[in-house]
Specification:
about 35% helix, alpha/beta, Alpha-Beta Plaits, about 575 residues, 3 domains, 17 helices
């Protein structure tokens, strides 16, 4: 992909979780890149602990989920107490995901496993290399880096991605303001062993007159202890175990004895964000673009999803399949997400740390009523796990469907493709363009038992999911096969296809029409039909980051091509 004017396609600055994810995704796409980090070696601090369900699905796509699960603690309950009474009880095991829990795992271990995966591609983080200058030209970026001995080197790259944290040099060189504020409270943190009656798969948050205390398990009888210590500036003197023990003694209703401290610190919390994620050929992601309260454990997970959103777009731009304008969607999509996350975490922070007696009284009375409602539980689960995040307002997602009248009383020319009121209602109940594509169970010819849909969609390409609907006619199956062959002919380099049918007979018919049975599966328990609103024939185009780019009812090749022609460039054939 690299032209004669450049040394590489992408320079990634920063070797934390966001930078590592970016590097891994670029490696999977076959992009020529380097990833540098100014620090001498990776941090051994635990830092971010929570790996949420949506991130676990990404790690499953990477093929490393088993190592992560073996390294952490699965947490499926979050309790909040106030003055000795439980005011909120959130369960995660009802999440519609193969991973209905949060994984508590030190960030140092997360980074270690991601570095190992990156190494499998023959790549590694280059440490002790610091970005000091950069210049943007019309077709490339010239970055100047300095090593530990002061030696300077110029790197010419097509794009540069700053994943270099809250004190981002890339953000500084771009001149982007980091708008926001510091919370008034100072917090105390301790990573310690705990002796006493404390659950190993629950997160517990305690509020009383002395302040907040949160306890997070992360395995081998070790816990993260966090407590606010009032509106005071962090002392220059390092806190010690006795101070953490004092906070626990004052705020935890159960006697707990702390020991073996591996990390104790006092810190302040900020909420800040930039208003641009892209300036020309330079992008920023993760903490370089947004920082917020650790409430809800969103920071690292949001940064990882930043990387997953951007990497496939860069790969398509480098291959000549999309224009430079397409890359603006990264800014539009992820900035909107970050603002939503900031709003949510700010609310959670203020609710849990308020010392206003009226606000505390309202919280303690209202929270139990709300958390007892299943609809509230579901909304909270999906928000914290990041499953409810969507790009519905993005300029690069779209959908096509006839009007309600045309669905019920179709024009004569469309009579054979009529899907009626039920089909219309079911499709409009299904996931929208911009939503995360739901997982489901299917049965393929090569499997003797049902398998998940997600692994079929894994990888780095778009997936065209054709759903044949209930009791399709042979003519409908022929139409589906013709659409697939046509799209595969022009877009087979970037789009894979899969067909889901209701019966083995339909599967055999389509296999004969397509001369390929490997990508046809049966909706054995109707979970695909239910989750995708596929009572009648429809299609979904799913992006490499698992979000829905386009959907159509009925199978309308013209509508699909209209979308593809608008956003993707056709390569000139030799």
């Amino acid at each position: 992909m690299t032209d004669k004017k450049t040394d590489l396609d992408v320079l990634v600055v920063g070797g934390g979780p966001t930078g590592l994810t970016m590097a891994i995704q670029l490696a999977r796409q076959g992009v020529n890149f380097r990833v540098i980090d100014k620090y001498k070696e990776p941090s051994d601090k635990s830092k971010a602990l929570g790996v949420h369900s949506r991130t676990l699905e990404i790690l499953d796509d990477f093929g490393v989920i088993d190592e992560f699960l073996a390294s952490g603690v699965e947490v499926n309950i979050i309790n909040v107490f106030a003055d000795g009474k439980r005011i909120a009880h959130l369960t995660l095991d009802e999440l519609d995901s193969p991973f209905p829990f949060a994984l508590c795992l030190p960030q140092s271990r997360t980074e270690e496993l991601l570095r190992k995966l990156l190494g499998s591609f023959g790549k590694s983080v280059e440490h002790s290399l610091e970005l000091v200058e950069m210049e943007q030209l019309s077709d490339r970026v010239i970055a100047t880096i300095v090593d530990a001995d002061g030696n300077r080197q110029e790197i010419s790259c097509r794009y540069l991605v700053g994943c270099d944290g809250a004190h981002s040099k890339v953000r500084h060189l771009l001149g982007l303001d980091f708008e926001g504020e510091q919370y008034p409270e100072t917090f105390l943190l301790g990573d310690v062993s705990v002796e006493g009656d404390i659950a190993e798969n629950e997160i517990n948050v305690f509020n009383n007159g002395d302040g907040l205390l949160a306890i997070f398990p992360y395995g081998n009888n070790r816990y993260r202890i966090v407590g606010d210590i009032g509106e005071t500036a962090p002392s220059e003197k390092e806190p010690d175990l006795a101070e953490v023990q004092k906070v626990v003694d004052e705020r935890c209703p159960t006697k707990l004895t702390l020991g073996d401290p591996r990390w104790i610190a006092a810190f302040a919390i900020h909420r800040r964000h930039v208003n641009r994620y892209r300036v020309g050929r330079v992008f920023i992601a993760g903490d370089a673009a947004h920082i917020h309260s650790p409430a809800g454990g969103q920071g690292m997970n949001t940064g990882i999803q930043d990387a997953c959103n951007l990497a496939w777009k860069l790969a398509l731009a480098l291959s000549g399949r999309v224009s430079e304008d397409f890359l603006e969607s990264y800014n539009d999509e992820r900035l909107a997400i970050a603002l939503g996350v900031l709003k949510m975490t700010d609310f959670m922070m203020k609710v849990n740390t308020t010392r206003n007696p009226v606000a505390k009284h309202l919280r303690n009375k209202i929270a139990p009523l709300l958390s007892a409602q299943e609809v509230i539980q579901e909304r909270m689960r999906n928000s914290i796990s990041e499953h409810s995040l969507n790009y519905r307002k993005s300029a690069i997602v779209a959908e096509h469907a006839p009007s309600l009248i045309d669905s019920v009383v179709p024009p004569l020319k469309d009579l054979k493709d009529s899907h009626g009121l039920t089909g219309y209602m079911e499709f409009h109940r299904g996931p929208r363009a911009g939503d995360l594509a739901p997982d489901a169970f299917v049965e393929s010819r090569n499997e003797t038992s049902p398998e998940r849909l997600y692994p079929l969609l894994a990888g780095t390409r778009h997936n065209l999911l054709v759903l044949a609907g209930r009791e399709p006619s042979h003519e409908s199956l022929e139409k589906a096969a013709a659409l697939i062959k046509s799209i595969d002919s022009d877009y087979g380099d970037i789009i894979d296809w899969h067909v889901i049918v209701d019966s083995h007979e339909d599967r055999d018919s389509l296999a004969s029409l397509l001369n390929d049975e490997s990508r046809i599966a049966t909706d054995w328990d109707h979970s695909v039909k239910h989750k995708y609103g596929a009572d009648s024939a429809c299609l979904y185009l799913i992006r490499p980051d698992s979000y829905i780019a386009f959907r159509s009812q009925p199978l309308d090749e013209g509508a699909l091509r209209g979308y593809l022609d608008q956003h993707f460039l056709v390569l000139t054939r030799a």
